[in-house]
């Protein structure tokens, strides 16, 4: 039985005047039905680009230059625009950070929801309205009848994001990609929205790819994570194992840099330097200039993502591989 | 002394006001007394004209951003001010700095009232109090080089300083914040967000201040850069004997950097306590909900306290306790009477009827 989503060696490039830049350099991960995966990393790591690439939302000058995106066994990278439209917003829905990227300010919520439904289903207005109401109730919005006649500006940020989730659910998708869905929201609203997403995924058996920089959020919601750095996955595996016992020096640095994990008022562990920009990616391991345990080989050869001894844990680091006694998987 | 001036007897109970309860220690840097800041956004005549019961009426629309806040900060402290968007913490920060005059109340710096001073009279205080802002892309003038940005405050507050001394000062302060002095000739857009924030901190340090108000200085930065900037701020505090008022919505950051914490909701103080006490035993229902909502790293998925309803607007403040509409412990008194900050045996100050009555 194939995975719900299997991304294999995905490559995304940007064709710019100065040359071709590689934004995503061979990213692989998979998602089973109903699983929740976190794509974690800081700004510039390429996690949003990966999310967009899955449903082919990369626009020029970016393009998918290699790899496969197998959704229910079919390679999305090879589909025509027409075929892709059947998948995007229908079988795979996406939620963005700013609800106003999804919501048209001059249309009522009702119009926008029905529009989405009519684009993917041939149903009557009455049936569409019934589905819209059902989904609004699912995201715990009160007085849904009244809400259908209201405009986005009449709602708070948290409510708008709930509406966006409701729209994402209209077509009963197999999977949702959520790109920083709660970063712009207050912490108490964030907790509610994350709880909502979690319970919806469980109830509907939906897969979730959660793209975020917030390790705390990912820890509460996802079952497995892939940590990205400069366009590559550097570590992946079960969320709990990775957050409690990170192997890759970047993941370790990230977790140690969080204020919550140390004695108050003590010095936080900082990772020196900054993530490289696309034009400055170092040779060998892209993290090596900032790495405290780097060796000679790190500046020359890019490490492969290898399976560690434990179940499903993978890391791309020469030093880790040596410690764990690994050989490249065939 | 305060008690005689205002003709108030000091009550024996714990309802004594926080800013008057103790004789003022010598190291009290800043005191806020009943500070109120309201913004009138009524607009012009036509905006305000409404029809009520068939008669034309002029409406006033006021954003009640800060409502009756009393606080103090002692030398060497880091007071963290936390709350979610719209709670008034940024407005409070700017009012403290004198960027807005308070609508009512007093701001006292080292025993001198500074809220009603003229620009000329404020000058000596301006060198002592500096501010760092949230958006590293908006807080540096894009048309000035780093050198020009950093020289300006030095020259402004030291009219007779020589060019050589100014240059030295600029290099010194750039090194302090970890930005190569050789880059002083570059423009802000040539730096990353984290570096720009370092430059903003350098700008604040050029005049050797004693008090810095930092308004969400790391919110726009990635975790690893955030750690660098927080370490920088803590080191500067140790090396230079600074006092901070640190505004943020990020509770893990506030936990890490603060000695005391003030929690705000809709312009009102809910709870003020030492950082350890606040995080170990939060008493106000809003603080409890806020702390329980922080997503934590770890295997244990904790339940968070759910709040009823939505955040009301600061234009139409609820009567009584501003939090009553969302509080599961609210009763009739909460709906009618504004709770005052009361001193608890733990040392915390909490504004909540239910806590006072022993109901929670």
Explain this structure to me?
The complex is a heterodimer of chains A (330) and B (360). By secondary structure, chain A is of the alpha/beta class. Chain A has a single domain (5-91, 171-324), classed as 3-Layer(aba) Sandwich (Rossmann fold), CATH 3.40.50.300. Chain A contains eleven helices and twelve strands. In chain A, helix 3 packs across helix 4, helix 4 packs across helix 6 (157-169) and helix 6 (157-169) packs parallel to helix 7. The longest helix of chain A is centred in the middle third of the chain and has 18 residues, at 187-204. Chain A starts with a strand and ends in a 6-residue tail after the last helix. The mean pLDDT of chain A is 89. Chain B has 360 residues and is α/β, with parallel strands linked by helices. Chain B has one domain (2-258): P-loop containing nucleotide triphosphate hydrolases (Rossmann fold), CATH 3.40.50. In chain B, 32% of the residues lie in helices and 22% in strands. Chain B contains 13 helices and 14 strands. Chain B has an eight-stranded mixed beta sheet, with helices on both faces. In chain B, strand 6 (104-109) and strand 7 (112-113) form a beta hairpin. The longest helix of chain B is centred in the middle third of the chain and has 18 residues, at 223-240. The model of chain B is unreliable at 1-16 (pLDDT under 50). The A-B interface holds A 42-43, 156, 158-159, 186-188, 190-192, 194-195, 213-217, 219-220, 240, 243-244, 253-255, 257-262, 264-265, 267-271, 274-275 and B 84-85, 192, 194, 222-228, 230-231, 234, 249-253, 255-259, 275-276, 289-290, 292-299, 301, 304, 306-307, 310-311.
């Amino acid at each position: 039985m194939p995975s719900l989503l299997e991304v294999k060696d995905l490559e995304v490039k940007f064709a710019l005047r100065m040359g071709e830049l590689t934004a995503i350099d061979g990213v692989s991960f998979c998602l089973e039905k109903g699983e929740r995966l976190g794509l974690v990393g800081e700004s510039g790591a390429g996690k949003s680009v990966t999310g967009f690439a899955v449903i082919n939302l990369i626009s020029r000058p970016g393009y998918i230059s290699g790899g496969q995106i197998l959704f229910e066994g079919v390679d999305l990278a090879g589909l025509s625009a027409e075929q892709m439209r059947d998948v995007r917003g229908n079988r795979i829905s996406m939620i963005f950070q700013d609800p106003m990227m999804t919501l048209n300010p001059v249309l009522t919520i009702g119009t926008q929801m029905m529009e989405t439904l009519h684009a993917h289903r041939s149903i009557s207005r009455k049936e569409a309205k019934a589905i819209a109401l059902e989904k609004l109730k699912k995201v715990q919005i009160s007085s849904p009848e009244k809400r259908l006649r209201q405009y986005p500006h009449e709602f708070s940020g948290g409510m708008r994001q709930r509406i966006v989730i409701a729209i994402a659910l209209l077509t009963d998708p197999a999977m949702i990609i959520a790109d920083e869905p709660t970063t712009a929201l207050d912490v108490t609203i964030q907790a509610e929205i994350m709880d909502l997403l979690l319970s919806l995924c469980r109830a509907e058996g939906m897969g979730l790819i959660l793209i975020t920089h917030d390790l705390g959020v990912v820890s509460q919601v996802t079952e497995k994570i892939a940590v990205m750095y400069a366009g590559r996955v550097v570590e992946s595996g079960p969320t709990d194992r990775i957050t409690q016992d990170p192997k890759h020096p970047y993941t370790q640095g990230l977790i140690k840099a969080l204020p919550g994990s140390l004695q108050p008022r003590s010095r936080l562990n900082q990772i020196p330097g900054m993530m490289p920009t696309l034009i400055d990616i170092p040779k060998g391991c892209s993290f090596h200039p900032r790495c405290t345990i780097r060796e000679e080989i790190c500046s020359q050869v890019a490490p492969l993502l290898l399976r560690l001894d434990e179940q499903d844990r993978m890391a791309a680091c020469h030093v880790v591989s040596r410690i764990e006694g690994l050989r490249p998987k065939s | 002394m305060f008690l005689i001036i205002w003709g108030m007897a000091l009550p024996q109970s714990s309802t004594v006001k926080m800013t008057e309860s103790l004789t003022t220690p010598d190291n009290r840097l800043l005191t806020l007394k009943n500070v109120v800041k309201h913004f009138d956004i009524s607009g012009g005549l036509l905006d305000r004209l409404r029809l009520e019961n068939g008669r034309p009426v002029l409406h006033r629309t006021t954003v009640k951003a800060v409502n009756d806040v009393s606080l103090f900060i002692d030398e060497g402290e880091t007071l963290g001010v936390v709350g979610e968007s719209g709670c008034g913490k940024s407005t409070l920060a700017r009012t403290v700095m004198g960027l807005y005059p308070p609508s009512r109340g007093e701001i006292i710096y080292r025993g001198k009232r500074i809220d009603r001073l003229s620009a000329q009279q404020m000058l000596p205080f301006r060198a002592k109090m500096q501010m760092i802002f949230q958006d590293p892309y908006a807080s540096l003038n894009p048309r000035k080089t780093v050198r020009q940005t950093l020289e300006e405050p030095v020259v402004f507050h030291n009219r007779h300083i020589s060019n050589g001394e100014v240059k030295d000062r600029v290099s010194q302060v750039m090194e302090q914040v970890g930005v190569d002095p050789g880059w002083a000739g570059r423009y802000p857009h040539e730096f990353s967000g984290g570096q720009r924030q370092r430059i903003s901190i350098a700008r604040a340090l050029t005049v050797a201040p004693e008090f810095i108000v930092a308004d969400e200085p790391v919110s726009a930065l990635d975790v690893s850069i955030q750690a660098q900037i927080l370490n920088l701020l803590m080191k500067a505090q140790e090396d230079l004997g600074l006092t901070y008022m640190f505004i943020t919505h990020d509770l893990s950051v506030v936990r890490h950097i603060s000695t005391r914490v003030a929690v705000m909701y809709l312009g009102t103080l809910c709870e003020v306590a030492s950082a350890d006490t606040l995080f170990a035993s939060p008493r106000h229902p809003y603080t409890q909900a806020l702390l329980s909502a922080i997503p934590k790293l770890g295997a244990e998925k904790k339940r968070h306290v759910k709040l009823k309803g939505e955040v009301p607007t600061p234009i139409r403040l609820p009567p009584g306790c501003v939090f009553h509409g969302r509080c599961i412990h609210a009763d009739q008194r909460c709906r009618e009477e504004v709770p005052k900050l009361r001193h608890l045996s733990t040392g915390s100050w909490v504004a909540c009827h239910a806590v006072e009555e022993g109901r929670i």
